[in-house]
Design a protein that fits this description.
Length: about 350
C-alpha cells in the first residue's frame, strides 16, 4: 500500500447538496494526477472533492462563496484533529447564553420551516457555538447542524414552503423519519461520522470563503484546480436553495428577508448563477487560472453554455479531453434528469 493510500480509509459523511459530486468521486478520482502536490477545489460546495484531494495527501485549498460551505471546509479539510466531545454537545444544546444571538431563526422561520420550539433551539445552539474555544470545533458544530437541517426538511433545501406540511404527512414521515425527529437526536446520530472523518494528512490545508474570481489572483503555486461551477440551468441559484443555512451561520442583522421563503437580500455576487454573465465570467476564470498546469472541470451535457462553447473557450488556453459518464438513474446531482450525462473536461498544457 502506498503511503498516501492510507488516507483512503477515512470516509466523507454523505452530503445532501444540489450538484454534490460525492456520487461521482470514484470516477473523478481516476483523473486526479498523482504528481500534483497542491490542489484547489474552487467551488467546494459540500467539500466532497476537496476531501478526496486531502485523502490523496495533497496540500488542499478549498473555497466556496457561501459561508456554511466554508465552515464544512474548515471542519473537514483544514482541521486536522479537533473533534466534538460529549461535553461540547451538552454545551451546544444548553440554553441561549449570548444576547448577540437573539431570536432570528425563531422570528423568521418558525411556522415556515420549523416549529417554534425547533427554531428557538437553533438560536440557542448558534449562541453556544461561540462558547466553544476552538475555531475548528465551532465550524464542525455549524457544519453538522446545517446537515441536520437539510435532513429535517423534505427535499433537503429551503426553496419551498411546504416543509411543515410535509413533516405532518404520514407517507413522507415513513420515507424519512428525520422529518419528526428531535434535532439533537439527528445531531448525535451524525456526530460519529463527522468526528471520524477528521484526519491529518500532514499538509497545510486551507478553506476560503470568497468569490473565486477574487481569490484566484491571490493564490500561487497550485498544481491542479478542480472547477465545479453551478450548472447554469434550473439549479444555479444556490442562495435561494440554501439561504436559511447562510442566514443561520452568518446571523445576518443587516439584510432584508424577502419572498415567501424569507431569503436574505441582497444576495452575494456569484457571477456564475445567471446565463447573462456566465460566459464572460468563465473567460475571466480561465484567464486567471493560466498559471495552474492542470484543470479538471465538471460539467453536464444539458448545461449552459453547451459543451462545444465550453471547449472552444478552454482551447484558447489548454488541450481538452471530454470524458462522459452516463447516469444510470436520476440521481445525477443538481436535480439532473435521467439520461443527461455528467462530463469531466480534463485540461492540460
Ligand atoms: C456545483 S456546486 C459544487 C459542488 C461540489 N463540487 C460538491 O461536491 O459538493 C457549485 C458551488 O459553487 C458555489 N459558487 C457559486 N458562485 C461562486 C463563486 N463566484 N465563487 C466561489 N463559489 C461559488 C456555490 O455556492 C456552490 O456551492
Amino acid at each position: 500500500m502506498l503511503f498516501q493510500d492510507y488516507y483512503m480509509g477515512y470516509k466523507f459523511p454523505e452530503p445532501q447538496y444540489l450538484g454534490a459530486k460525492y456520487i461521482h468521486r470514484e470516477w473523478i478520482d481516476k483523473y486526479i494526477p498523482s504528481d500534483a502536490k497542491v490542489a484547489l477545489d474552487a467551488f467546494g460546495g459540500s467539500q466532497s472533492i476537496a476531501y478526496l484531494l486531502k485523502q490523496h495527501g495533497k496540500e488542499t485549498h478549498t473555497n466556496d462563496l457561501l459561508s456554511f460551505n466554508a465552515h464544512i471546509g474548515n471542519a473537514l479539510i483544514e482541521n486536522a484533529s479537533e473533534i466534538l466531545s460529549a461535553q461540547d454537545v451538552d454545551l451546544l444544546f444548553s440554553p441561549n447564553r449570548n444576547p448577540n444571538y437573539f431570536s432570528l431563526m425563531e422570528q423568521l422561520y418558525s411556522g415556515l420551516f420549523f416549529t417554534r420550539e425547533d427554531a428557538a433551539l437553533l438560536d440557542a445552539f448558534r449562541s453556544n457555538v461561540d462558547c466553544l474555544q476552538d475555531k475548528y470545533k465551532q465550524s464542525l458544530a455549524l457544519a453538522l447542524m446545517c446537515r441536520c437541517l437539510t435532513r429535517k426538511v423534505t427535499m433537503g433545501h429551503f426553496a419551498h414552503t411546504r416543509a411543515l406540511d410535509y413533516a405532518a404527512n404520514g407517507e413522507r414521515i415513513r420515507r424519512n423519519r428525520s422529518l419528526i425527529r428531535p434535532l439533537r437526536d439527528i445531531f448525535e446520530d451524525l456526530l460519529p461520522q463527522y468526528n471520524s472523518a477528521i484526519f491529518d494528512n500532514k499538509r497545510s490545508n486551507k478553506s476560503y470563503n470568497e468569490n473565486i474570481l477574487e481569490l484566484l489572483p491571490k493564490l500561487n503555486n497550485i498544481d491542479l484546480v478542480y472547477f465545479d461551477p453551478p450548472y447554469c440551468d434550473s439549479h444555479a441559484d444556490y442562495q435561494s436553495f440554501y439561504h436559511l443555512l447562510e442566514t443561520y451561520v452568518m446571523y445576518w442583522t443587516d439584510k432584508h428577508f424577502v419572498n415567501t421563503i424569507k431569503r436574505y437580500d441582497p444576495k452575494r455576487f456569484s457571477g456564475f448563477d445567471k446565463k447573462s454573465t456566465m460566459i464572460d465570467n468563465f473567460h475571466k476564470l480561465l484567464s486567471l487560472a493560466q498559471s495552474i498546469p492542470v484543470w479538471l472541470i465538471s460539467y453536464n451535457d444539458r448545461s449552459f453554455p453547451d459543451i462545444n462553447t465550453m471547449t472552444t473557450l478552454i482551447r484558447k488556453y489548454r488541450n481538452v479531453e471530454v470524458i462522459y459518464k452516463q447516469y444510470s438513474n436520476s440521481r445525477g446531482g443538481k436535480g439532473s434528469v435521467a439520461g443527461s450525462r455528467e462530463v469531466l473536461l480534463v485540461c492540460k498544457m
